[in-house]
Amino acid sequence: MKMSIHRRQISRRSMLAGAAALGLTSTLAACGGSDDKDSGDSSGPVKLTYWSWAPNMEKVAAIWNKKNPDITVTVSKQASGAEIVSKLITAKKAGNAPDLIQAEYQSLPTLVSNDVLADISRYVGDAKSEFAEGAWKMVTLGTDAVYGVPQDSAPLMFYYREDLFKQHGLSVPKTWTEFAEVARAAKKAAPDAYLTTFSSNDPGLFAGLAQQAGGQWWTVDGGGKWSVGIDDAGTRQVAEFWGGLVQEGVIDNQPMYTPAWNQALNKGTHLAWISAVWAPGVLVSSAPDTKGKWRMAPLPQWKSGDNVTGSWGGSSTGVSSDSKHAEAAAKFARWINTDPEALAALVKYPAVYPAATKGQSGDILTTPEFFSNQKDFYTTAAEIAATAAPSAWGPNVQTAYTAFQDGFGSATKAKKEAQFLSALSTMQSKTFDDMKKQGFEVTEA
To answer: Are strands 226-228 and 442-444 parallel, antiparallel or unpaired?
Structure first.
């Protein structure tokens, strides 16, 4: 099968970009960096470098190193988000990318299209059974290739102040229609408070909400031709819904992760928070006075009876195409994300929620201190994680995210529903134009 991304200049990078998206599986082995060089794993002791931003990851690696003296892993602490992606691409161009990479799911298409990640399917392909289908699809990008082993999962959930809900006679919403009703009731019961806020600083949350609504921001056909559909029906539904509530004045328009937001959570002037499974760790520092007052429930649904959620975050462990020890690196990537002792260490030290299904329940997890009143926290979390919709990422996520912050920043300040929708249209056009400028063959959905 002839395959390319249909850039103006067809190259190995363009072939990988096309293959990375969907249905382009038959020649990935020929393109993958790990298959192009001698693994070097049998030539003596192996030393690997692992770029990670997770706190205390070196403590997890130390367990491996003690058991595997012939393959030692050194963790190099990095920044997360766009910064590590930029550094990795630069390192790849210089030919000195690290052996192992902690890569967020949304960055995988960008890293693959820049030939940063190797296809490690021959080493870890049979690990598929360790993960939920949606999590595994995140690292295969819809192909037979495997560009990483899922590390942590970040399903979206509804967090609420149980004491304030009881005080104001509010019910936990099961649908988004009920959510709007609860927002109005909360504002009426406590005029100086809001149910929650819409944050224009956090495109990852918006993306997760769009995923739940069926949004497919990037897709690609069997010939490697991309389509950008950020302003699809599902995402427009989400933008219109939140824009309407902000305009109505029953949802706050302040960004998250600011001193004002922390105070709103701590003082109870925000009664709820839509966030991912990692939220308890944030509440410890953002709302220290509210310990034991929160509960978690599944995300409201667009249609009664549905059972689906989106994700906000999550990452994988990949092997770089520069690594001379791909097999050894893949062995570590598999171990850290599937071995019971490693999973327990991931929970204990970096405090991640494992993507491996066996790491999402049992003695590995203990009830978060902020949810001492909800002993089934992780049992419920595992049930929700299994319903996460697969994400559809593209090679220029950061462009889309920047456009979101600019457009929705203005829209939230104006408190105009119409501007939420126009901001979404601008986000679509800027993302499309950027891909076209880069040389991708692309259409608008």
So the answer is: parallel
